[in-house]
Write a structure and sequence with these properties.
Layout lengths: L1 H22 L5 E7 L2 E7 L4 H8 L3 H27 L3 E9 L4 E8 L16 H15 L5 E6 L4 E7 L4 H8 L3 H19 L9 E9 L4 E8 L2 H7 L1
Antiparallel strand pairs: 1-2, 2-4, 3-4, 5-6, 6-8, 7-8
Helix pairs in contact: 1-3, 4-6
Length: 237
């Protein structure tokens, strides 16, 4: 346990530093959850001064495009550093931002010996019913995924992994090199679907943030739901 906490602390410090070095301003906090094969880095208070001006002028797309380019360049460096800290190679990496809330997530899929371990859901929640709702939601906008998996990674973070989700027109766009356009269209659409699906009815507290990213070549999607922390929920009750 101590070794895991040390790794999470080192990763948080590194992510804060690398974002500050390349964006000119680092996040106020980085919360790291290491549950092999998943490594989730939840970033808060992250918006550079120039980005803030663009967001205020409703130029969020420009900010998102710039971040995407820079994060793609940083992806190999971040993966190497994570491997040095954890001793496990990063097989895939995903990221997404909520510019208005100044939050974001980076998710690494590790090649870990404990890759079959699944973090347990709270006993009072119906994981199967929640997964069925995710399948229904996916069908509204695309199709029923070939595989749907959900993981309760921490006291306020849920990870949803879907495989085999793209319909034929999306596959044609991917083949034609239109992944950036597809990404811009799918993010707001799937966030609306999350709201319409009323997923909070299957959980015990509100959803504060939804993050999405895709492996277009691998026909995969990762979604992270950031829930209201349990202590805040108790205060409101």
């Amino acid at each position: 346990m101590t070794d895991s906490i040390s790794k999470q602390t080192d990763i948080a410090a590194y992510i804060g530093r690398v974002l500050r070095d390349h964006f000119g301003k680092g996040p106020t906090s980085v919360h790291v959850t290491l549950e092999p094969p998943f490594l989730l880095m939840h970033v808060q208070g992250f918006l550079a001064p120039m980005e803030e001006i663009l967001v205020q002028q409703k130029e969020t797309q420009r900010v998102e495009e710039t971040r995407h380019i820079l994060m793609e360049r940083l992806r190999p460096e971040i993966s190497r550093q994570i491997e040095q800290i954890t001793g496990e190679s990063v097989q895939e990496m995903y990221f997404d931002w909520n510019l208005h809330q100044r939050t974001g997530v980076l998710v690494g899929l590790l090649r870990a010996e404990r890759s079959d371990a699944r973090p347990l859901w709270p006993a009072h929640l119906d994981q199967q019913a929640f997964e069925q709702r995710i399948i229904e939601m996916s069908e509204w906008g695309q199709k029923i995924p070939a595989v749907t998996e959900t993981f309760w990674l921490s006291d306020h973070l849920i990870l949803i992994k879907r495989t085999g989700i793209f319909v034929q027109i999306e596959k044609e766009l991917i083949e034609g090199g239109y992944t950036e356009v597809l990404q811009r269209v799918k993010r707001p659409m799937e966030r609306r679907m999350v709201s319409q699906a009323r997923l909070e009815a299957f959980l015990d507290r509100p959803i504060l943030d939804t993050f999405l990213d895709w492996d277009f070549q691998g026909d995969k999607s990762l979604m992270v739901l950031a829930l209201q922390p349990p202590h805040q929920n108790r205060k409101q009750m």
